[in-house]
Specification:
0% strand; 82% helix
């Protein structure tokens, strides 16, 4: 892949994996809708509500995280930095979704998942600002 930087490849990897996570969570919502015969909303079914929120939470955080990784690649940030931030973000989203889907109330998975979501987003924001002003 001539002309493609390692940073761009790193961002592409985490963007693609994030998209696969979104597709997986979306398919879980569809399967649970079919199982419970609910066409819209959660129908008062806790299992479906959990799947909907897991998908919703991922869609709230992954797009901005992926966009930020792409910006880092455009700015020629080191690939290892993009891999570290992308890996942490995806890990956080997977752990959070699992905690939300499999446990109906607050869980350690949700807490750890949010920490592994917020930290890479915060670090990425700081790095982007540093690239902009330095």
């Amino acid at each position: 892949m001539d002309g493609v930087t390692a940073s761009a490849q790193a961002a592409a990897l985490w963007a693609g994996l994030g998209m696969l996570l979104l597709l997986g969570l979306s398919s879980l919502v569809v399967r649970r809708r079919r199982r419970h015969l609910v066409a819209f909303g959660d129908g008062g079914v806790p299992e479906l509500a959990q799947a909907i929120r897991a998908f919703g939470n991922a869609t709230e955080y992954l797009p901005v995280g992926i966009a930020a990784l792409v910006l880092l690649a455009v700015l020629s940030a080191p690939a290892y930095l993009i891999h570290g931030l992308g890996g942490a973000l995806l890990f956080g989203r997977v752990v959070h979704a699992a905690g939300l889907i499999f446990l109906p109330s607050s869980s350690i998975g949700r807490v750890v998942g949010m920490m592994f979501t917020w930290m890479p987003l915060l670090i990425t924001a700081i790095v982007l600002i540093a690239y902009a002003v330095v």
